[in-house]
Design brief:
The protein has 400 residues and is of the alpha/beta class. Helices cover 42% and strands 14% of the residues. The strands form two sheets. The protein has a seven-stranded mixed sheet, with helices on both faces. The structure holds pyridoxal-5'-phosphate. Residues 89-91, 94, 115, 117-118, 158, 162, 187, 189-190, 209, 211-212, 221, 223, 341 line the site of pyridoxal-5'-phosphate.
Length: 400
C-alpha cells in the first residue's frame, strides 16, 4: 500500500517504466518472467489460509501470477483505476466485463460504432441469454436518454469508434447512465491509454485490447479490464477465476515491456497521424477524412475536450468505392494490409471486407462504413516515407 501511494505520485512516464515492479531476491533489473502454472505451499495450513484468503500469496495461475500482477498494477496506475485484470485477448476483456455483471432480464445500451466482434457480442450473443440490447447512434445524447431505463445495467461504448472515428461524449453519457443506475464500460483502444482517461471523465470500467498499442509491436494478444475494487470483488474476479480467460505470464511480460515505451510511441504515432490526416484531406482522390484531430471532424471540439491527442488511426473514404480502395491497398509498398492496429508498423485495412464483413451490408450502411472506406493505423516509420507511400497508392487508386 505504501508502494502504491508512492507510485501514484509519479508522473506517467515514470509509472510506465517502474510502476508495479516487484523484484525477486535475485535483484534482476528487468521484470522477472514467472513461467509457472502453479505455486507450492510451505505447509498444509498455509494451503488452507491462502485458499480462504486469510493469507496473501499465489495459489494457481488462473487466479494470479507475479508477472501478470506487475503488468496489472502498472496499467492500473496509469489508468487511475483501483484494479486491473489482464485477459487472454481484448475480446475476452470485453466479454468478461459484460457477462460478469449481467443477468437474464437486464438491459444493455451500446453505441453502434464499434469493433466488429464487440458488435456481434452485444447484438447477437447477449440476447441469447435473455439480455435485451439496444444499439444507437452514440453521438446523439437524446437517443441515449430515450434508450436508458431502470433495467439498464450496462452501457457499452467505444470512442473514437472503430472504424469511422465517431466520438461519444463520455462525461455526458456517464451522467445519464448513472441516473438509471447503469455502469459505463468504455472500450478505449482507439482512445489510447493516457490520451483519453475514461474513468476521470466519469466512466466506471475501461477495457483494452492490449494487442494494440500496449504491446505495440505486433507480438502477442492480450486484454485488460480496469475498474473499482467494488466491481472487482463482487462481479469480475469470481467470474474470471471460474471461467478462466486470463493472460499468460509470457504475454504479460511482453505487455510490461510494451508499457515502458508506450508514451514515446504514442506521442510519435499521434504526431505523424495528425500530419498525414491533414495531407490526406487535401488529396483529390480522397472524398473525406475521419480523424478526431482535424477541425473538419464533426465532433472535433468534443474530441479535443476528452482526448489530449487525435489518436493514431485515420479513416478515409476513397471516391472510387471498393475498387479504388482495393487498388489503393494493393499499391502500397511500405504500409502493410492488415486487420491489426496500434503496431509499430503502419497498417491499412478495408473494414467493409475484413473487420466489419460479418455484421452485414445493412449494419455497415447504418454505421457509415462505405465500400471506399480505408482505415490506416499509423506506426513509427518516418513520416516522409509514409507520405510517399500514401501518395503513390492514392495515384493508383485514382487510376492514374
Ligand atoms: C482489436 C480490438 C478489440 C479486440 O481485441 P483482441 O485482442 O483482438 O481480442 C476490441 N476492441 C477494439 C476497439 C479493438 O481494436
Amino acid at each position: 500500500m505504501e508502494r502504491r501511494k508512492r507510485e501514484r505520485a509519479w508522473a506517467p512516464a515514470t509509472q510506465l517504466v517502474r510502476g508495479g515492479t516487484e523484484r525477486s531476491h535475485h535483484g534482476e533489473t528487468s521484470e522477472a518472467l514467472y513461467l509457472t502454472s502453479g505455486f507450492v505451499y510451505e505447509t498444509a495450513a498455509q494451503g488452507d489460509a491462502r485458499t480462504a484468503g486469510d493469507e496473501a500469496g499465489y495459489v494457481y495461475g488462473r487466479f494470479g501470477n507475479p508477472t501478470v500482477t506487475m503488468f496489472e498494477d502498472r496499467l492500473a496506475l496509469i489508468e487511475g483505476a483501483d484494479a486491473c485484470q489482464a485477459t487472454a485477448t481484448g475480446m475476452a476483456a470485453v466479454f468478461a466485463s459484460l457477462m460478469s455483471q449481467l443477468r437474464a432480464g437486464d438491459h444493455v445500451v451500446a453505441s453502434r460504432v464499434m469493433f466488429g466482434a464487440c458488435h456481434v457480442v452485444i447484438d447477437e450473443l447477449l440476447p441469447r441469454y435473455g439480455i435485451e440490447t439496444d444499439l444507437l447512434d452514440g453521438t446523439d445524447l437524446r437517443a441515449w436518454e430515450r434508450a436508458l431505463r431502470p433495467e439498464t445495467r450496462c452501457v457499452f461504448l467505444e470512442s473514437p469508434g472503430n472504424p469511422t472515428m465517431a466520438i461519444v461524449d463520455i462525461a455526458a453519457v456517464s451522467a445519464l447512465a448513472h441516473s438509471v443506475g447503469a455502469r459505463v464500460i468504455v472500450d478505449n483502444v482507439l482512445g489510447m491509454p493516457m490520451v483519453q482517461r475514461p474513468l476521470a471523465l466519469g466512466a466506471d470500467i475501461v477495457v483494452y485490447s492490449t494487442t494494440k498499442h500496449i504491446d505495440g509491436q505486433g507480438r502477442a494478444l492480450g486484454g485488460a479490464i480496469l475498474g473499482s475494487d467494488e466491481f472487482f470483488a463482487n462481479d469480475l474476479v469470481p467470474f474470471i477465476r471460474t471461467t478462466g480467460p486470463v493472460m499468460s505470464p509470457f504475454n504479460a511480460w511482453v505487455m510490461l515491456k510494451g508499457l515502458e515505451t508506450l508514451e514515446l510511441r504514442t506521442t510519435r504515432m499521434c504526431e505523424t497521424a495528425a500530419r498525414l490526416a491533414a495531407i490526406l484531406e487535401g488529396h483529390p482522390a480522397v472524398a473525406a477524412v475521419h480523424y478526431p484531430g482535424l477541425p473538419s471532424h464533426p465532433q472535433h471540439a468534443l474530441a479535443a475536450k476528452q482526448m489530449s491527442r487525435g489518436g493514431s488511426v485515420i479513416a478515409f473514404d476513397l471516391a472510387g468505392g471498393r475498387d479504388a480502395a482495393f487498388r489503393f491497398l494493393d499499391s502500397l509498398e511500405l504500409i502493410d494490409i492488415s486487420n491489426n492496429l496500434g503496431d509499430a508498423k503502419s497498417l491499412a485495412t478495408h473494414p467493409a471486407s475484413t473487420t466489419h464483413q460479418k455484421i452485414g451490408a445493412d449494419a455497415r450502411a447504418t454505421l457509415g462504413i462505405g465500400d471506399g472506406l480505408v482505415r490506416l493505423s499509423v506506426g513509427l516509420e518516418a513520416e516522409t516515407d509514409l507520405r510517399s507511400d500514401l501518395e503513390h497508392a492514392l495515384r493508383a487508386a485514382a487510376g492514374s
